[in-house]
Design a protein that fits this description.
Strand order of the largest sheet: 12-11-10-9-13-14-15
Number of strands: 15
Helix content: 25-40%
Number of helices: 16
Radius of gyration: 26 Å
Oligomer: single chain
Length: about 400
């Protein structure tokens, strides 16, 4: 005799004992547990269980309803086809929606876009409530196949929605690939730290405005980075080398940078910097944050003063990709298990070869090629893209002595 599936949904105030009462009733009927999920939102419980029974499904429904009524919980039961393909569907993509806040209109636009490309939302969970709101949607193709769309349609459609809805939307393949990342590289200027080191140095030479204009053009991809770097470094000629240490002492980390690196190192990530800036100015960050590696440019110094020249190979756009390959090889990490985070056109090659390329408050030239683009000024949003929740971060911090939330103004 073919079995029957019964879908049971229990709702009501969350409190101890609800699951035990439900499963006591199910045990008396000798059912098989096929699936179960539970979520609690603001103290309200929703518990769903799909069970299989070979006899008296109506009697099972009645017994469950009586058991739940005895503890003042609401329950809904329905008979399901035993071979329902929806019950066996596996999510193919994780879609992260990030906002401060996420409005109902914005979320509705995302949901509509998913429906338009034939994607079904299988589950939703909140991954962050600070410093942004983050909602993770696990999605899969429409049951039965539906209309076939070209590869990349889902990402392209959601990028379009993000632009108009005022939220960030990140799309990743679900499964082991998402959870297998092991190495991450950060650009430094305007990514790990606020501002541009070269402009801070140029200010000492009275050429900050001139250098800023060249920097912005290079980050937009309008100038060759190597040539633009030589032009900017040339104005530093004659400055005492002590300005490098002075500027290093003035660097301000991007909000969330410490949390991001601290959390990733707990997870066993190799973390480092690949920068078009200068080793002398950022080496302190490597020690301060306990980073594993660093690649940057070397300024020439003679008789205690900067010459306005660079020594050795320039870490430019292709040089950043070379550095990422080198560090990945040295730690035995495949490129598909690497993450790269940057903001400018000189990060394009690095983000393109990494398994996950994240554009952080980036110029259009980079956002067009990155796997995902983040527009909020908090680096720890990177953690949410990787599937790490704010609750997990804070519990780990509390276990090691506690790091409180900093008020956001």
């Amino acid at each position: 005799m073919a079995g029957t599936s019964v879908l049971i949904t229990v709702t009501g105030p969350d409190r101890p004992g609800v699951s035990s009462v439900l499963f006591a009733a199910l045990t008396r009927h000798g059912v098989d547990l096929l699936d179960v999920e539970q979520v609690v939102i603001r103290g309200r419980l929703t518990l769903g269980a799909l069970v299989g029974t070979h006899h008296d499904p109506e009697g099972l429904q009645e017994a469950v309803e009586q058991a739940m009524a005895s503890i003042s919980m609401q329950v809904h039961t329905s008979l399901e086809a035993h071979d329902d393909p929806v019950a066996r569907r596996h999510s193919t993509h994780a879609v992260l929606v990030i906002g401060r806040p996420i409005t109902a209109r914005a979320f509705g636009s995302v949901a509509l876009a998913l429906a338009d490309v034939g994607a079904n939302i299988d589950s939703i969970r909140r991954v962050a409530d600070y410093p942004v709101t983050g909602l993770e949607l696990m999605v899969s193709p429409e049951p039965g196949g539906g209309v076939r769309h070209p590869p990349g349609t889902l990402r392209a459609r959601l990028v379009e929605v993000a632009r108009t809805a005022g939220v960030d939307v990140a799309v990743e393949r679900a499964g082991l690939a998402r959870r297998s990342k092991r190495l991450i590289v950060f650009d430094v200027d305007s990514t790990l730290v606020q501002g541009e080191v070269i402009e801070m140095l140029a200010a000492r030479a009275g050429a900050e405005a001139e250098v800023r204009a060249v920097t912005e053009a290079a980050m937009r991809g309008e100038l060759d980075f190597a040539e633009s770097l030589r032009r900017r470094v040339a104005v530093l000629a004659g400055l005492p080398e002590s300005v490098l240490d002075d500027v290093a002492g003035q660097l301000e980390l991007t909000p969330g940078a410490r949390t991001t690196i601290r959390t990733l190192k707990r997870l066993g990530f190799r973390c480092g910097l690949v920068s078009g800036g200068f080793t002398r100015a950022i080496s302190g960050l490597v020690e301060q944050l306990g980073l594993d590696f660093c690649a940057a440019n070397e300024l020439e110094v003679l008789d205690g003063r900067l010459t306005g020249n660079i020594v050795g190979e320039i870490v430019d756009r292709p040089g950043k990709a070379v550095a990422l390959r080198r560090f990945a090889d040295s730690y035995g990490v495949p490129l598909e298990q690497c993450v790269a985070v940057g903001d400018g056109a000189n990060d394009i090659d690095m983000l393109s070869i990494a398994g996950l390329g994240i554009a952080f408050n980036a110029k259009p030239a980079l956002t067009e090629v990155a796997d995902t683009a983040l527009s909020h000024p908090y680096l720890d949003v990177v953690l949410f893209v990787l599937g790490i929740t704010r609750d997990e971060v804070e519990r780990a911090d509390a276990a090691e002595g506690g790091v409180r939330r900093v008020p956001i103004t």
